[in-house]
Amino acid sequence: MRVKAGDGNLRQLPSNQTVTVATRMCWLVISACVSVTGKSLGIIPFSYLRDLTSMTTPQQIGNNGQIPANWTQKDIQNSGLPRYAADDLDGIVSELSNGAGFTLVQGLAPTPEVISDVEECGIRLQKFGQDLGRLLPQNSEQEQLVEISDFSDEDEFDDRGYRSPGELTPHTDPPPIIALLCLRPAHSGGANRLVSAGSIRDAIRDEDPTLVPVLEAGFPYFMPDEKKQGDGHIGDVIPTLLDGPGGISCVYYRPFIERAAEFSGIPLPARSVAALDMFDRFANDAELQVQYTLEPGELLILNNYRVLHARDDYVDWPEKHKRRSLLRLWLDADWMPEPPPAHAGRRNPMADLL
Ligand SMILES: [Fe+2]
User: Fold this and answer.
1) What's the 11 CA to ligand 1 centre distance in angstroms?
2) Ligand 1 mean position to 231 CA, how many Å?
3) What's domain 57-65+80-353's superfamily in CATH?
4) Pick from 79, 197, 200, 249: CA 20 to 30 A from residue 243's CA?
5) pLDDT tens-digit series, residues 262-310
6) Ligand 1 (ion): which residues have CB within 5 A?
7) How many CB atoms sit inside 10 A of residue 246's CB?
């Protein structure tokens, strides 16, 4: 069933799938570490990047397969940002699986009245997600819809990235697909930055191919305790970049790699640091990134295997009801390729918590 604005079926979702405020999450605590500790991974100043917001118009729908999988900013400039109507599921699936690996979607929240109704937006977004694939729980409370906003003044222990202000450096989230519906942008800043994992690997291969196997071997990750700030344990070694049956799969969040090393008392080897530094350098390379500020009612969907995302720092509105706000889904879908075995856990990241 296609999702259409005003679809009468949208309100037939189970009542427990209404908008909720997330209270638990493990992986995305990592995002907060960046803003809380103030550690910088070499982010390029915003002004150096070209915001593509003004580069496309609502008339440019689809991209006709023009964007290669390992795209650079120049490729996106040439083709325009991929945009699809919310009922063009075939186009969206094709773009995510065989095209750019990300797309903007329009029409899900088409009017100011709908955009201002957070519950209605949540219902529409979940219905859309169910048409595209399967909703995944995003935290130990099994919430399938979370609000991304600054709640740092409400909760003592709530330094997770999606509930905190500030910059988030390029990283992947745990699931196969991420969907972000913008309800309200920040007063200023808060742009999303995207970069192709394949393009990062291409650039590393060009400069020092001996570092690629280091990233393929991977690193131990720190796994935080969701309830006790600072507590956690060292988890499995997770490869950063691997090829699976459906192509590349990237898992990356450097603060947890570094925290695992600190936790174990064993510093990262020099070759590991060199590989991570080069990965970060290209992940933040202005020529590889696209930057885009979502407008109210716009939906951004990412193939999280192939595209890393980041968020610029931002200045929020002083009034709470005006704060930057997005709704997020984590999704899997049968049409998504199987990840390499070492990344198989991505298909349901919260399964261990069930
Ligand atoms: Fe994220």
Assistant:
1) 28
2) 21
3) Clavaminate synthase-like (3.60.130.10)
4) 79
5) 999 999 999 999 999 999 999 999 999 999 999 999 999 999 999 999 9
6) 173
7) 17
